[in-house]
């Protein structure tokens, strides 16, 4: 019983801490789970990224999570823990989707690896994500890069094909992102296009 109490108290405190309302000035990112990739939308910046996303250190980040198809689970162990990503019906006019959220602040620069933690289909194992925590200046530079030129998410969508699965992947690093060891990456879409759904 003592061990359970010792584990439960910090767990409950962390859950409440990561679900509290976002403070003013927080970076809001809409996270949409797809079979089998992650879409990251920055509504205030007007950009979209796939599977990899960038955040500034020292600034609260609010992830708003929902799914386009089945239940997924967003899990970057070093950034706020695990949260279910639930499919939602189209909302009525004037209503918002019911979403789960994670609120956290990255204190240190680095690369944070994550994985879908809910079995969501045959290619569940390749449904990974990468968070890049960078300085505020580097984050602003990334935003500018995404808004212009070939790495802009609404000007370039990449489709990575793996045996048994197809996943659109946004190129957020200037190099073609890949899913799986034997991925073949081909450019898809056009300026203004959104990441295509899997066939």
Topology summary:
Layout: H1 2-18, E1 27-34, E2 37-42, E3 47-50, E4 52-56, E5 61-67, E6 72-76, E7 81-85, E8 100-104, E9 110-115, E10 128-134, H2 136-147, E11 157-162, E12 165-169, E13 184-188
Parallel strand pairs: 1-5, 4-10
Antiparallel strand pairs: 1-2, 2-3, 5-8, 6-7, 9-10, 11-12, 11-13
Distance between the termini: 50 Å
The major pleated sheet works out as: 5 strands, mixed
The share of residues in helices is 10-25%
Rg to the nearest angstrom?
17 Å
Overall pLDDT metric: 73
Strand percentage lies at 35-45%
User: What is the chain-wise order of helices and strands?
Assistant: HEEEEEEEEEEHEEE
Structure description:
The protein is mainly β. The chain is built from 2 helices and 13 strands. The strands form 4 sheets. Strands 3-2-1-5-8 form a 5-stranded mixed sheet. The longest helix has 17 residues. The radius of gyration is 17 Å and the shape is globular. The termini are far apart.
């Amino acid at each position: 019983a003592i061990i359970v109490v010792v584990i439960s108290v910090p767990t409950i405190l962390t859950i409440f801490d990561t679900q509290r309302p976002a403070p003013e000035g927080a970076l809001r990112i809409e996270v949409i789970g797809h079979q089998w990739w992650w879409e990251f939308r920055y509504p205030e910046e007007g950009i979209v990224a796939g599977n990899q996303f960038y955040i500034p250190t020292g600034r609260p980040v609010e992830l708003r999570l929902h799914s386009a198809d089945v239940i997924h689970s967003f899990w970057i162990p070093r950034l706020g823990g695990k949260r279910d990503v639930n499919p939602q019906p189209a909302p009525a006019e004037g209503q918002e989707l019911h979403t789960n959220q994670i609120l956290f602040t990255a204190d240190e620069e680095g690369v944070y690896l994550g994985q879908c933690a809910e079995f969501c289909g045959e290619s569940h194992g390749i449904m990974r994500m990468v968070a890049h925590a960078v300085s505020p200046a580097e984050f602003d530079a990334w935003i500018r890069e995404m808004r212009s030129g070939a790495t802009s998410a609404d000007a370039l969508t990449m489709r990575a094909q793996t045996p048994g699965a197809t996943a659109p992947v946004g190129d957020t690093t200037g190099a073609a992102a890949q899913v799986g060891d034997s991925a073949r990456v081909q450019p898809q879409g056009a300026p203004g296009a959104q990441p295509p759904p899997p066939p």
